[in-house]
Design a protein that fits this description.
The strands form four sheets. Strands 1, 2, 3, 4, 5 and 8 form a six-stranded antiparallel sheet that branches. This protein has a three-stranded antiparallel sheet with strand order 9-10-11, covered by helices on one side. It has a two-stranded antiparallel ribbon with strand order 6-7. With 222 residues, the protein is of the alpha+beta class. The chain folds into three domains: 62 residues, no CATH class; 50 residues, Nucleotidyltransferase, domain 5, CATH 3.30.420; 69 residues, ATPase, substrate binding domain, subdomain 4 (Actin, Chain A, domain 4). 14% of the residues are buried. Helix content is 28%, strand content 37%. α3 packs across α4. The longest helix has 20 residues. It starts with a strand and ends with a strand. It is built from four helices and 13 strands. InterPro entries: ATPase_NBD, Heat_shock_70_CS, Hsp_70_fam.
């Protein structure tokens, strides 16, 4: 989704994902992701309405999740006072960013170039094959899995550590929402760490019945 404030100003792009969203802008010859008010480059796609008001992002993550549809997304931009320029799918936006960076580096696409783009999101996995020739983007094929994403990695990791905890301490935490919530948070953090390293350790104080939990996991295990 591409937005611009009414009047003059730069356009921003919003990736409204199933589980996380982010905002980017083209500047300094590259796409830069804008951090939120907590300094994070991504924000949970969650909104919760409570008796104390409306919660957004991390504060609402464990409550109610809302994933707007196409028209709702467009209406939300208008209500926010933005000039809705266009709503684009992920492969197209990625291809545009790829092409812009190629132009900035004065890379040639004479004769055309085939580009395979994959988007492994929080809840879905999409793959597209595009042909880029000059300023023309042609989608040759698309495929994907609407039930495969980062949450599946989280679920497998949580289940793994539930079994590790039970084997080590002979206690089942699968029916304790609080313990599972803390474990899931640590697993999500471990998943991000494993994006750049081969192994990591999770440590949770007093995870269940006062028992501290510590265990290692490798990228290949996930």
């Amino acid at each position: 989704m591409t937005l611009a404030a009414k009047g003059e100003g730069s356009a921003i792009g919003i990736d409204l994902g199933t589980t996380y969203s982010c905002v980017g802008i083209w500047q300094h010859h590259r796409v830069e992701i804008i951090a939120n008010d907590q300094g994070n480059r991504t924000t949970p796609s969650s909104v919760a309405f409570t008796n104390i008001g409306c919660l957004i992002g991390d504060a609402a993550k464990n409550q109610v999740t809302i994933n707007p549809m196409f028209l709702a997304t467009k209406d939300a931009g208008v209500i926010a006072g933005m000039n809705m320029m266009r709503i684009l799918n992920e492969p197209t936006t990625t291809a545009i960013a790829y092409r812009l960076e190629s132009l900035d580096k004065k890379a040639s696409t004479i004769g055309g170039k085939n580009v395979l783009i994959f988007d492994l999101g929080g809840g879905t996995f999409d793959v597209s094959l595009l042909k880029i020739e000059d300023e023309i983007f042609e989608v040759k094929a698309t495929a994907g899995d609407t039930h495969l994403g980062g949450e599946d990695f989280d679920n497998r990791t949580v289940n793994h550590f539930v079994q590790v905890f039970e084997k080590k301490h002979r206690k089942d935490i699968s029916n304790d929402p609080k313990a599972l919530g803390r474990l899931r948070t640590s697993c999500e953090r471990a998943k991000r760490t494993l994006s750049s390293t081969a192994k990591t350790t999770i440590e949770i104080d007093s995870l269940f019945e006062g028992i501290d939990f510590q265990s290692k996991i490798t990228k290949s295990k996930i």
